[in-house]
Specification:
Helix content: 10-25%
Number of domains: 1
Strand order of the largest sheet: 6-5-4-3-2-1-13-12-11-10-9-8-7
CATH superfamily: Lipoprotein localisation LolA/LolB/LppX
Number of helices: 5
CATH class: Mainly Beta
CATH topology: outer membrane lipoprotein receptor (LolB), chain A
Order of helices and strands: HHHEEEEEEHHEEEEEEE
Strand content: 35-45%
Structural class: alpha+beta
Number of strands: 13
Distance between the termini: 21 Å
Shape: globular
Length: 253
């Protein structure tokens, strides 16, 4: 979800070695002909192209490389309160998250490539993993297009009464992202991120709603999140922009 603090609070309560709900699709059992494999790759490629077109095509690829967004956030950890979220993303792997609730000190987390900071101090482990996974989901659908040859068809699922096609991509040997895509509209209706911080698993699940077009790019203005099956809160964006450039200070600790 877009609030790693909440995800990490839930993650910390897990027992070491507890399994994720799923570890991604099993490897092929073999026996598929070259024609069948080629047909499957064509279907994956066609869905990626349909998805990219739905988000604005080449314009989306360029615009989504740099995004500044702000909005309101609610959380089970702050019942009855509405907080403020500011999020700055730059491809590849640069992310700044600021979350502030009334009466609480604002939390700032920064991912700058291989460096991670929380409250201005270096961070690692689950904090780093959560930010890396969130940066990956914010890079959809461009990430799927960039790594099309590595994207796999993870099958069909029913999500809120709709049949979606799931495309999966291994980010590293221990992390993965899956996008639940409406094959008719090309919209990504959910993102599922999987990874491990040492022995601890982490599954971040984000549902997207309230799609609007901003500067020719399709943007979901409402996000609902879960961490390892537990709700972590909701985000309602109020402003989204695609700056031509971002200052280095945006990703300073």
């Amino acid at each position: 979800m877009a609030i790693p603090l909440l995800a990490l609070a839930l993650l910390a309560s897990l027992l070491p070695g507890q399994a994720l709900a799923a570890d991604g699709p099993a490897p092929p059992s073999g026996g598929a002909s070259d024609t069948e494999q080629g047909g499957a790759r064509e279907q994956v490629g066609a869905l990626i192209r349909r998805t990219l077109a739905a988000y604005g095509g080449e314009r989306a690829t360029v615009r989504l490389a740099r995004v500044r967004a702000s909005g309101k956030v609610t959380s089970p950890l702050h019942p009855g309160e509405v907080g403020r979220l500011t999020r700055v993303f730059s491809r590849p792997s640069r992310l700044r998250l600021e979350v502030a609730f009334p009466g609480s000190e604002p939390e700032v987390r920064v991912l700058d490539g291989g460096r991670v900071f929380r409250y201005g101090e270096p961070a690692s482990g689950a904090v780093a993993l959560a930010l890396q996974l969130q940066a990956a989901r914010l890079d959809l659908p461009a990430l799927l297009a960039e790594w099309e040859t590595r994207v796999v068809d993870a099958g069909e699922v029913t999500h809120e009464g709709q049949k979606l096609r799931v495309l999966g991509l291994d980010l590293t040997a221990s992390s993965r992202i899956e996008a639940g895509i409406d094959p008719r509209s090309g919209r990504i209706l959910y993102a599922r991120c999987l990874g491990r911080a040492g022995p601890r698993p982490l599954e971040l699940f984000t549902v997207y709603r309230d799609f609007r077009v901003v500067d020719g790019v399709l943007v979901p203005f409402h996000e609902e999140g879960w961490a390892n099956g537990e709700p972590t809160g909701e985000i309602d964006l109020t402003e989204v922009e695609f700056p031509e450039d971002l200052p280095e200070s945006a990703f300073a600790p």
